[in-house]
C-alpha cells in the first residue's frame, strides 16, 4: 500500500540508540548539545509541526528555484536595476553585504543541530535547515553577482565578512556568538526563535514590501521566497522552548532576553535606517517603529505569554530605544559614511523630516539639531566638518557606538570590570548581558580597543579605513551627493 | 528630492566576478560563483569573539591544528559541481523515479508476495539501516561544520541531505512492510538488530568511533574513506545484488538508486584525496597513518557485513567481501594509499 507522510514519519525520527562502544558524553558533549540537567526523556516530547518529507522538499524547492530565477532573469533583461532610486539601492548593498554570509553561517549552525541536537527529531529537521540556508546564501550570491557589473558594492556580498569593516564586525560578533559558538539549545532560542521567527520578519517581509514599492521586483521576490523557508526552519525554537519551560525556565528567559536586546540593536543598525531613511518617502509602507511594534513586539509578547515567560526586565527601556536607537545609529552611519561600503541617504529633506516627526514625535528634539548643524556645514561648503576625524567609542557587547542605544539625553556610562579589564557598554541592558556571562564576551577586542592597542596602523582614520578594507570605489558617501541640503540654504529658504 | 541620478551611474571599475577569485584567467562557473570563499572563519582567531570561547577553542583544536596541509582549501572543486538549484532538481528526478517504483510495485502487490527468506533478509539487512544512515547523516554534518573551506563544506551539506533521504526511504519501506506483515517486527525490531546482532556490531562500532573523531582530517578519513564507503558498498551496492536474487526487487532497485548518491560522495572524496596528495608527500603519510589506524575497523565491517549479506541463494561471503575490498582499494589507491592490513 502507498503511504501518507504521517504513516512513516515517526519511524524516520526513531533513530536514537544506546551507544556502547564509546562514551555517550564524548559523542554528544554537553558543550554542544546544551542538554545540561534536562533528562533524556524530556527530549522525546520535542516535536515540530512541519513534518517535512525529503520527497516533498526537493519537489517544492525546485519549483521555487525556477520561479525566483525566472523573475531574476526577466528583471535583469528589463534593466530594472539601472532605474532604481539610489537610496533604495543602498538598502540592497547593505542587506547583501551584511546578510549573505550570515545565511552561510546559518548552514553551519543547522549542521550543528544535525550532529549534536539532543533528539534525532531535531537532528533531522536541521537537515532541511542546512539546505534552506544554502539556498539563501546562493540566492543572495547569484543576485549580487548579476549586479556586479553595475556596482562593485555587490562584491561585498561575498567579501564583507572577510574584511574588518566595523558594521560587519558587529554583525559577525553577534552571529558568531549565537550561531557558531553556542550550544544547540542556546542557538535555537537565540537564532531560530528570536532572530529568525521574530526579527527577520522585518528584513524579509517589510523590506520586501518596500522593495516592491520601489520597483525592485527581483529583490522583493527573492526576500519573499527566502521568508517561506524561514517560516519552516525557524520552528526549531518552539519545541526547544517547550522543553526548557518544563525543566529550566530561567535559562530560557535569560537566553531570550539577551537575544532580543542584541537583535534589537542589530536591526536598529541594519533595517531601521533602510526603512526610515533609505526607502524613498513615497514608497514607505510603515515606519521601522510601526513595523517593529506590529511584527516583532506584539509577536514576541505573545510568545512570552503563551509559554509563561515574563517580559524582559528592560521592556520600558526597550520601548524607549525603539523610539530612538535607529535614529542615533543612522546619524552615526551617515556621519561615519567613509567607513561604510554603501552610500547612505541622509533622508532629512524637509518632507522626510516632516514624516519623521509625524512617526516619531521626539525626533526633532533629539536629532534635529545635529542634522541642522550638518546641513549648515554642507551649505556653507564646509564638508570637512561633516566628516569624522576619529572613531567613536564602541560597546563591548553590541560593538555599536556608545550613545547610540537611546535618546541623546541618555548618556550615563555603563561599565563593568572583569579580570582587571574595563568594558564599556551602550546601555545598562548591554551591561546586564555582559554581567550575566562575562566569559562569553570578555577577551574580545572591538575596533576601538584594537585601534588603541596599536593593531591598526597608521593610527588615523585613513589607517582605520584601510584596515577595514574600504576601497575608494565602494567607500560610502551621501546617496544623492548632498543635493537634498540645498532646500535649506538661506537663499532658497527665502 | 531629485532622483534623476540612477543607481547605475558609470563607474571606473566594472567587475565581472568576485574580486576574491583574483586572476582566475577564465570566467568562473555558476557553481564557483555560488560556492567560493564563503567560510569567514579561516583566520587566526576564527570567530569574532574572545579567543577562549567554545567556538574558537573547538575550531583551533579540531580544524586549525590538523596535520593535513594545503596552500588553499578553496582550490578544491566538487567534480559534480552541485549547487542548491542543481541538487534539488537532480534529487527531485531521483525521487520521482523512486515514487514510480513504489507505485508500480504496489500495484503488483509486491510485498504480499515476498518469501519467508526475502522477509528475513529485509528485516536483517534493509530496515535496520535507518540507524546506519542516521549515523552517516550526523558524521556528514560534522564534516560540513568543521570543513576548512566552503567548497568542501557544501559537498558535505548535500551528503548530509542524501543521508536523510535514505533514512526517510527506509522508514517508508519499513512501514509498508509492517502493514503488509504485521506479525513480524518491522518498525519495532530494528533497534535491537542494530544494537545486538553480532554481524551488525562492527558497523555500529565503527559508527560510534567515527562520532568521537573530532579532528577534521581524521573525521574525513573515518567517514569518507572507511565508514561511509564500506557501509554503502555493503548495504547498498552489494546488498542490491543479493536483494535482487532473493526476490526483493523493489528494495534492490531503491538500493541501486541510493547508491548513486554514494557514488557522488565517492567522486568528491576521490578528487579531494588527489588534491591532498598533490599538495605534498607529507599529506599522504598523514592520510595513510589515519587510514591504517582505521583499517582493522574497516576490515571487520567487511567481514561481518559480507556475512550478513551472504545467503544460500546468493554469492558466497568471500565473493562479496572481495568485491567490497576491491571497491575500497579503488577508492584509495589512486591517491597512493593502501588499505592492506599492516
From TrEMBL, chain A:
Molecular function GO labels: monooxygenase activity
Q: Which residues form a coiled coil?
A: none
Question: What InterPro entries does UniProt report for this protein, alphabetically?
Answer: Ferritin-like_SF, Phenol_Hydrox, RNR-like, YHS_dom
Q: Could you tell me the keywords of this UniProt record?
A: Monooxygenase, Oxidoreductase
Q: What is its EC number?
A: 1.14.13.227
What is one Pfam family matched by this protein? YHS
Broadest EC class assigned to this enzyme: oxidoreductase
This chain's source organism reads Rhizocola hellebori
Residue ranges occupied by any YHS domain in the UniProt entry: 416-444
What's this protein's name?
Answer: propane 2-monooxygenase
Catalytic reactions on record: propane + NADH + O2 + H(+) = propan-2-ol + NAD(+) + H2O
From TrEMBL, chain B:
Coiled-coil parts of chain: none
Q: Main EC class of this protein?
A: oxidoreductase
Sorted alphabetically, the keyword list is:
Monooxygenase, Oxidoreductase
Superkingdom: Bacteria
Q: Which Pfam families match?
A: Phenol_Hydrox
List the InterPro entries: Ferritin-like_SF, MP_mOase_hydro, Phenol_Hydrox, RNR-like
Q: Which EC number(s) does UniProt give?
A: 1.14.13.227
**GO MF annotation terms:** oxidoreductase activity, acting on paired donors, with incorporation or reduction of molecular oxygen, NAD(P)H as one donor, and incorporation of one atom of oxygen
Q: Can you state which reaction this protein catalyses? A: propane + NADH + O2 + H(+) = propan-2-ol + NAD(+) + H2O
- Establish whether keyword Nucleotidyltransferase is in the entry: no
TM region positions: none
Q: What is this protein called?
A: propane 2-monooxygenase
Amino acid at each position: 500500500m502507498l503511504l501518507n507522510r504521517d504513516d512513516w514519519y515517526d519511524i524516520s525520527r526513531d533513530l536514537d540508540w544506546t551507544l556502547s562502544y564509546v562514551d555517550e558524553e564524548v559523542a554528544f558533549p554537553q558543550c554542544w548539545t546544551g542538554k545540561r540537567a534536562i533528562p533524556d526523556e524530556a527530549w522525546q516530547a520535542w516535536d515540530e509541526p512541519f513534518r517535512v518529507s525529503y520527497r516533498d522538499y526537493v519537489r517544492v524547492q525546485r519549483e521555487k528555484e525556477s520561479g525566483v530565477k525566472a523573475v531574476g532573469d526577466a528583471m535583469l533583461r528589463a534593466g530594472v536595476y539601472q532605474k532604481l532610486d539610489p537610496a533604495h539601492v543602498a538598502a540592497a548593498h547593505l542587506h547583501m553585504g551584511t546578510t549573505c554570509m550570515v545565511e552561510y553561517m546559518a548552514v553551519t549552525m543547522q549542521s550543528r543541530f544535525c550532529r549534536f541536537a539532543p533528539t534525532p527529531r531535531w537532528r533531522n529537521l536541521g537537515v532541511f535547515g542546512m539546505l534552506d540556508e544554502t539556498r539563501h546564501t546562493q540566492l543572495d550570491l547569484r543576485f549580487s553577482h548579476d549586479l556586479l557589473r553595475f556596482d562593485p558594492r555587490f562584491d561585498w556580498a561575498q567579501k564583507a565578512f572577510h574584511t574588518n569593516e566595523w558594521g560587519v564586525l558587529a554583525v559577525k560578533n553577534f552571529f558568531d556568538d549565537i550561531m557558531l559558538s553556542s550550544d544547540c539549545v542556546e542557538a535555537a532560542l537565540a537564532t531560530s526563535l528570536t532572530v529568525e521567527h521574530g526579527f527577520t520578519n522585518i528584513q524579509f517581509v517589510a523590506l520586501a514590501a518596500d522593495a516592491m514599492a520601489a520597483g525592485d521586483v527581483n529583490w522583493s521576490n527573492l526576500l519573499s521566497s527566502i521568508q517561506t523557508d524561514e517560516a519552516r526552519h525557524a520552528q526549531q525554537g518552539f519545541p526547544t522552548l517547550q522543553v526548557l519551560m518544563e525543566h529550566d525556565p530561567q535559562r530560557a528567559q535569560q537566553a531570550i532576553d539577551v537575544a532580543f536586546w542584541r537583535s534589537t540593536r542589530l536591526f536598529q543598525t541594519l533595517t531601521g535606517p533602510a526603512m526610515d531613511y533609505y526607502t524613498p518617502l513615497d514608497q514607505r509602507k510603515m515606519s521601522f517603529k510601526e513595523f517593529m511594534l506590529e511584527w516583532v513586539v506584539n509577536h514576541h509578547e505573545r510568545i512570552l505569554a503563551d509559554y509563561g515567560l515574563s517580559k524582559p526586565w528592560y521592556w520600558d527601556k526597550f520601548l524607549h530605544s525603539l523610539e530612538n536607537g535607529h535614529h542615533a545609529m543612522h546619524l552615526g552611519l551617515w556621519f561615519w559614511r567613509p567607513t561604510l561600503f554603501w552610500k547612505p541617504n541622509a533622508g532629512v529633506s524637509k518632507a522626510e523630516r516632516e514624516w519623521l516627526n509625524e512617526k516619531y514625535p521626539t525626533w526633532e528634539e533629539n536629532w534635529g539639531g545635529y542634522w541642522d548643524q550638518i546641513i549648515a556645514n554642507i551649505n556653507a561648503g564646509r564638508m570637512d566638518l561633516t566628516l569624522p576625524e576619529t572613531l567613536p567609542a564602541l560597546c563591548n557587547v553590541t560593538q555599536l557606538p556608545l550613545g547610540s542605544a537611546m535618546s541623546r539625553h541618555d548618556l550615563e556610562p555603563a561599565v563593568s570590570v572583569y579580570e582587571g579589564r574595563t568594558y564599556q557598554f551602550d546601555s545598562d541592558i548591554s551591561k546586564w548581558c555582559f554581567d550575566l556571562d562575562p566569559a562569553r564576551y570578555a577577551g574580545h577586542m572591538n575596533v576601538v580597543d584594537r585601534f588603541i592597542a596599536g593593531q591598526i596602523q597608521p593610527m588615523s582614520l585613513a589607517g582605520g579605513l584601510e584596515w577595514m578594507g574600504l576601497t575608494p570605489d565602494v567607500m560610502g558617501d551621501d546617496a544623492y551627493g548632498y543635493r537634498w541640503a540645498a532646500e535649506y540654504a538661506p537663499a532658497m529658504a527665502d | 528630492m531629485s532622483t534623476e541620478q540612477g543607481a547605475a551611474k558609470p563607474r571606473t571599475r566594472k567587475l565581472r566576478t568576485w574580486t576574491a577569485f583574483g586572476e582566475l584567467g577564465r570566467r568562473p562557473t555558476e557553481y564557483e560563483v555560488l560556492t567560493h570563499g564563503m567560510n569567514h572563519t579561516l583566520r587566526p582567531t576564527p570567530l569574532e569573539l574572545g579567543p577562549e570561547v567554545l567556538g574558537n577553542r573547538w575550531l583551533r583544536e579540531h580544524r586549525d591544528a590538523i596535520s593535513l596541509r594545503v596552500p588553499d582549501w578553496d582550490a578544491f572543486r566538487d567534480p559534480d559541481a552541485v549547487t542548491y538549484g542543481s541538487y534539488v532538481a537532480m534529487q527531485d528526478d531521483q525521487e520521482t523515479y523512486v515514487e514510480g517504483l513504489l507505485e508500480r510495485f504496489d500495484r503488483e502487490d509486491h510485498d504480499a508476495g515476498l518469501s519467508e527468506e526475502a522477509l528475513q533478509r529485509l528485516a536483517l539487512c534493509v530496515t535496520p539501516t535507518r540507524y546506519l544512515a542516521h549515523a552517516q547523516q550526523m558524521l556528514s554534518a560534522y564534516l560540513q561544520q568543521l570543513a576548512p573551506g566552503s567548497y568542501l563544506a557544501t559537498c558535505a551539506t548535500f551528503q548530509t541531505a542524501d543521508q536523510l533521504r535514505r533514512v526517510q526511504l527506509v522508514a517508508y519501506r519499513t512501514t509498508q512492510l509492517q502493514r503488509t506483515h504485521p506479525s513480524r517486527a518491522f518498525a519495532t525490531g530494528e533497534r535491537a538488530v542494530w544494537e545486538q546482532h553480532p554481524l551488525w556490531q562492527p558497523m555500529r562500532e565503527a559508527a560510534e568511533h567515527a562520532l568521537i573523531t573530532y579532528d577534521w582530517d581524521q573525521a574525513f578519513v573515518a567517514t569518507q574513506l572507511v565508514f561511509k564507503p564500506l557501509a554503502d558498498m555493503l548495504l547498498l551496492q552489494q546488498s542490491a545484488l543479493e536483494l535482487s536474487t532473493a526476490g526483493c526487487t523493489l528494495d534492490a532497485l531503491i538500493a541501486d538508486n541510493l547508491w548513486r548518491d554514494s557514488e557522488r560522495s565517492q567522486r568528491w572524496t576521490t578528487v579531494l584525496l588527489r588534491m591532498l596528495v598533490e599538495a605534498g608527500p607529507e599529506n599522504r603519510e598523514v592520510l595513510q597513518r589515519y587510514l591504517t589506524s582505521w583499517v582493522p575497523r574497516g576490515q571487520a565491517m567487511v567481514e561481518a557485513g559480507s556475512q550478513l549479506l551472504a545467503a544460500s541463494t546468493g554469492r558466497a561471503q568471500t565473493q562479496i567481501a572481495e568485491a567490497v575490498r576491491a571497491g575500497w582499494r579503488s577508492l584509495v589507491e589512486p591517491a597512493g594509499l593502501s588499505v592492506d592490513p599492516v
